[in-house]
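Exercise 7b. Backbone tokens:
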């Protein structure tokens, strides 16, 4: 009789232990799987190292292509220039009859600036007409910006030989004399630009009437400076234009996941975030914030 009671007690203990183990298993949330498309790759690389996320890298084109991919649900998180994002959300993009409403902001990022590089043996006294010019990276900030910059300088698109080349390869072509100029929109400093300058290429000012012309097409462009000493031999600030980048996601992405992404930016990769994002401006996106990101910013503000 006693042995039967002991057996019953042991059976109940084992059953309770099994239930507890099952409950513990059910409370461990799986790592969210996210599809990222990101250029440049600094933030993407940092997220790939974080254990709480499973990141799939999806190659997509420039800002417009990446926003279209967010809107149709084929990627989850990307970055894009602010002016294209604003137009996409509120007005739509070329070949789209309606605004792209499935886009939400995560963070306002730092400003990407336009670098206009001229090859070591190129004479620009007569302008850019007739030159071979890399207008940008096919997966860069904005394919149209380089061409518009050339047009703003009084040169028609038909008067140049333009192409799109990844920046690393473009610098090689510039130094080898295969192209005459390179237009790169990047967050400075960037090693490919420094390598081009060490090889004899020159950075030119963008500071005339062309800026007013550009802003007619890109109202969120800002006059800006590349500080002296940013690049080799740069003894004075360089005038140029820049545009803010945005980190964005799908509107229907789970709020808890977006909260975790935003928190990771500021708490798990803070050194990178300081280079890429001004924490005091991060919430000031030109489109509505995702509720998950908004929740993180509210909590952070309350903790101050």
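Sequence design result:
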């Amino acid at each position: 009789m006693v042995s039967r009671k002991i057996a019953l007690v042991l059976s109940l203990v084992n059953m309770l232990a099994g239930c507890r183990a099952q409950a513990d298993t059910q409370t461990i949330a799986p790592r969210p799987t996210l599809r990222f498309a990101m250029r440049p790759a600094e933030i993407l690389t940092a997220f790939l190292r974080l254990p709480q996320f499973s990141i799939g890298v999806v190659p997509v084109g420039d800002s417009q292509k990446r926003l279209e991919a967010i809107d149709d649900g084929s990627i989850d998180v990307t970055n894009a220039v602010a002016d294209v994002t604003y137009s996409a959300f509120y007005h739509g993009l070329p070949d789209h009859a309606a605004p792209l409403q499935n886009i939400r902001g995560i963070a306002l990022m730092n400003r990407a600036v336009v670098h206009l590089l001229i090859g070591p043996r190129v004479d620009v006294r007569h302008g850019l007409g007739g030159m071979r010019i890399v207008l940008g990276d096919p997966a860069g900030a904005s394919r149209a910006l380089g061409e518009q910059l050339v047009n703003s300088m009084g040169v028609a698109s038909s008067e140049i030989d333009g192409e799109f080349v990844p920046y690393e390869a473009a610098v090689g072509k510039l130094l080898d004399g295969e192209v005459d100029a390179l237009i790169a929109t990047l967050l400075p400093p960037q090693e490919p630009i420094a390598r081009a300058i060490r090889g004899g290429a020159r950075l030119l000012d963008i500071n005339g009437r062309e800026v007013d012309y550009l802003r007619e097409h890109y109202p969120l462009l800002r006059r800006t400076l590349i500080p002296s000493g940013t690049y080799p031999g740069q003894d004075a600030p360089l005038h140029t234009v820049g545009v803010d980048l945005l980190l964005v996601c799908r509107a229907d992405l789970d709020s808890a996941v977006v909260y975790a992404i935003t928190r990771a930016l500021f708490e798990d990769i803070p050194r990178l975030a300081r280079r890429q994002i001004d924490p005091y401006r991060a919430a000031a996106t030109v489109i509505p914030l995702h509720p998950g990101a908004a929740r993180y910013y509210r909590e952070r503000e309350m903790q101050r």
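Instructor comment: Residues 112-243 form a domain with the D-Maltodextrin-Binding Protein; domain 2 fold (CATH 3.40.190.10). The first strand starts at residue 33 and ends at 37.
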